[in-house]
Amino acid sequence: MASLFITLEGTEGAGKSTLVPIIKEYLESKGRKVLTLREPGGSEICEQIREILVSVNDNEKLCDTAELLLMYASRAQLVENFIKPKLKEGFDIICDRHDLSSIAYQGGGRGISMDKINKVREVSIGDFRPDLTLLLDIDLDIGIERAKARGKLDRFEREAQDFFLRVKNAYLDYAKKHTDLVHIIDAKQDLETVKANVLKVLEEKL
Ligand code: T5A
Best substitution site from 18, 135, 138 to test ligand 1's pocket, by max atoms within 8 Å of Cβ? Predict the structure, then answer.
């Protein structure tokens, strides 16, 4: 079967990073070659871009357009140099966040128009899209508590509740319009239940 590009999406602390190795192990148990990546980041240069995006700079505010462009700079670099070539080599790729994060955070959260996002996307990655997206849906309070328990909050995690509410709504709106691509997973349940539900979706996809 052709290689799969699988993305994990959701608000802070939803459990995306926790699920990446679980999905990898499952796919490998089916005899598949798997590579895992994250956005922003995932390569040496992309991790440098990530640092600008997530670190807190009290002296200078990163403007919304610069944030959008940096997200897509990291994505373009990763898609061109790693994701496309590795898919061609027969690897499945699991990516912790991808394009839908920009629709949710820069579109929903920051209020950048879809027209502007689509233009930036077009020059960055063209019509490249995932084969499957798992949207981990979680109550914002639970997610942020999980993220806080991990330690210092990054630039995004310091945003107010209404920012994350707009992000969550943008995710859910997109999922409702793209039911063929996006599977919503109830992520507030215990890890074993979440894992079982995710593996069920993957089994169906394979
Ligand atoms: N961003 C990113 C944009 O604005 N635009 C973009 O285009 C992109 C790509 C950094 C930020 O960048 C923004 C969004 C982000 O704010 P990030 O660091 O990847 O991106 O994102 P975060 O969501 O901040 O990553 P987190 O690590 O906080 O969330 P995860 O990965 O969803 O959560 P995870 O797996 O680390 O779990 C958090 C804690 O919960 C526990 C885990 O053990 C961990 O301690 N946990 C559970 N506990 C109970 N029950 C469960 N089912 C659990 N699942 C996990």
Answer: 18
